[in-house]
């Protein structure tokens, strides 16, 4: 289950981000592509297992699942690939390139900002 390793590196990145800003992370957004071979449920499960009973318990994981998209090399139309049909819906050619679907990105980290001390 490689999701556990991925969850761990995401948490490492979140903690590093929180440390530099001296605040507590409350929510983390991840972008996962259809082609990345990551099971979002397994990732969610790993994430919860790793944060349970730690400082990060209760941290929300927000997963954005990205469908496979291609761009036509002839007319530049961008389209979602379904059922392995790679023909351009606009002009019908099959000359196109993959532009998304392989993402594994940390989209954002939401931090709880502490009120600046007035003392
Ligand atoms: Zn086209």
Which stretches are low in confidence, meaning pLDDT under 50 for 5 or more residues running?
none
Radius of gyration: 19 Å
**Total number of beta strands:** 6
Shape: elongated
| Global mean pLDDT | 92
Architecture overview:
The chain is α+β, with helices and mostly antiparallel strands and 119 residues long. It has a domain at 3-67 and 101-112: 2-Layer Sandwich (hypothetical protein PF0899 fold), CATH 3.30.2320.50. Helix content is 26%, strand content 32%. It is built from two helices and six strands, in the order αβαβββββ. The strands form two sheets. It has a three-stranded mixed sheet with strand order 2-1-6. It has a three-stranded antiparallel sheet with strand order 4-3-5, with no helix packed on it. Strand 1 (24-33), helix 2 (40-51) and strand 2 (60-66) form a beta-alpha-beta unit. The longest helix has 19 residues, at 3-21. The model has no long low-confidence stretch (mean pLDDT 92). Bound molecules: zinc ion.
Please give a quick description of this structure.
The protein is an alpha+beta fold. It has a domain at 3-67 and 101-112: hypothetical protein PF0899 fold, CATH 3.30.2320. It contains two helices and six strands; from the N terminus they run H-E-H-E-E-E-E-E.
Search tags:
about 120 residues; about 25% helix; elongated
Which helices and strands, and how do they pair?
Elements: H1 3-21, E1 24-33, H2 40-51, E2 60-66, E3 69-72, E4 78-80, E5 96-100, E6 104-112
Parallel strand pairs: 1-2
Antiparallel strand pairs: 1-6, 3-4, 3-5
Helix pairs in contact: 1-2
The structure holds zinc ion.
Zinc ion (ZN) is lined by residues 72, 74-75, 77, 88, 90-91, 93.
